[in-house]
Amino acid sequence: MPEYEGTIIRPPSEAESLILQYTVGCSHNQCVFCPAYKQKKFRIRSIEEMEREILECAQDFKDTRRIFLADGDALAAPQQDLLQFFTLLRRNFPRLQRIGMYANAQSILGKSLEELAALREQGLGILYLGVESGDDALLAWMRKGVSEEEMIEASGRVKKAGIKLSVTVLLGIGGRSGSIKHARATGKMLTEIDPDYVGALTTMVVPGTPLHLLQESGDFMLPDSFAILDELAEMIEHTDMRGLFFANHASNYLPVMVRMPVQRDETVKMIREVAREGNASRLKPERLRRL
Questions:
Q1: Cα 148 to Cα 154: distance, rounded to the nearest angstrom
Q2: Rounded Cα distance, 156 and 199, in Å
Q3: What is the DSSP string of 30-76?
Q4: How does residue 145 score in pLDDT terms, banded at 50, 70 and 90?
Q5: I want to staple 245 with a disulfide (CB 3.0 to 4.6 A). Which of 81, 134, 144, 258 is the partner?
């Protein structure tokens, strides 16, 4: 069986994948809203350690078709190590069709287009990138470590390499005063990126994070549930892309899946109607929302 250190997080779309923890923690680990890796010191597990785990897993999961590499940023590993690791995976899982992993913009920009293409040829099928917002000032405030321009450049490099790109954005992270500006700027950025998938999550303020301290001091105020819906509608309305836009994560108040651009207008209309109606019974109860 795989060995895990601490809590393991994976995208919803990797629910059926074999999860291997190639890196522990996150190489950046500075984002004000994120509680996921605060108790972990980032490290990359050795190829020798991973080989032992792969050999054990191959006995029980020999028909594995998809593998997801945790934790927060497996792409930060050196290129030659990744290629060696992928070779081990393909050798021991003969039916393997796709390898997926989280990445951040810094690690993507740390790889050349040729290096990313080489990883794609060896099985890397999808990268999950948290872009969060297209508002440069908000990105800096969140301590993302990169600008909107760098997010767009990193995303473009992934797509040029032939790797599918799934990005996440955060509803509510602009607070009450910056909600609409955040929505419009993010829609504009998503239009430029044109990702295969967008996953919109709703910000949940977790005790122990810098965002919680900002909320406690009154320096951050999360929009209410219906303002979050207005923000979602505004973001979708300002996004012109050809993939799927999801807002059906456990954190979201109103589950939405939009095939862009054909379903955009009708979806925006529906979300605005729910927000205008103000009927809380149509929303997911707070007790059922999850990170």
A1: 10
A2: 18
A3: --TT--TTTT---EE--HHHHHHHHHHHHHH-TT--EEEEESS-GGG
A4: very high
A5: 258
Q: What's this model's pTM, rounded to 2 decimal places?
A: 0.96
HEC readout, 100-167:
EEEECHHHHHCCCHHHHHHHHHCCEEEEEEEEECCCHHHHHHHCCCCCHHHHHHHHHHHHHCCCEEEE
**pLDDT category of residue 39 using cuts at 50, 70 and 90:** confident
Is the separation of the CB atoms in 152 and 189 below 8 Å? yes
Contacts of 245 (CB under 8 A, 6+ apart): 197, 198, 200, 236, 239, 256, 257, 258, 260, 264
* Structure-token pair, residue 261: 């651009």
Residue at token pair 């955060």: 170
Q: How far apart are CA 86 and CA 275, in angstroms?
A: 47
For 265-278, the pLDDT digits (tens) are 999 999 999 999 99
Sheet holding 66-70, edge to edge: 18-21, 66-70, 98-103, 124-132, 164-171, 197-202, 244-246, 257-259
Alpha carbon distance 28, 24 (integer Å): 12
What letter would DSSP give residue 243? Answer: S
What SS3 state is found at 280? helix
Residue 162 has pLDDT above 80, yes or no: yes
Q: Shortest CA distance to 101 belongs to which of 74, 65, 82, 122?
A: 74
**pLDDT value at position 98?**
98
Q: What is the DSSP letter of 203?
A: P
Show the domains of the chain with their CATH numbers: 12-288 (3.20.20.70)
Residue whose pair of structure tokens reads 């209410």 in the numeric block: 224
Main-chain dihedrals φ then ψ at residue 44, nearest 5 degrees: -105, 125
Task: Tell me which residue has tokens 């059906």.
Answer: 248
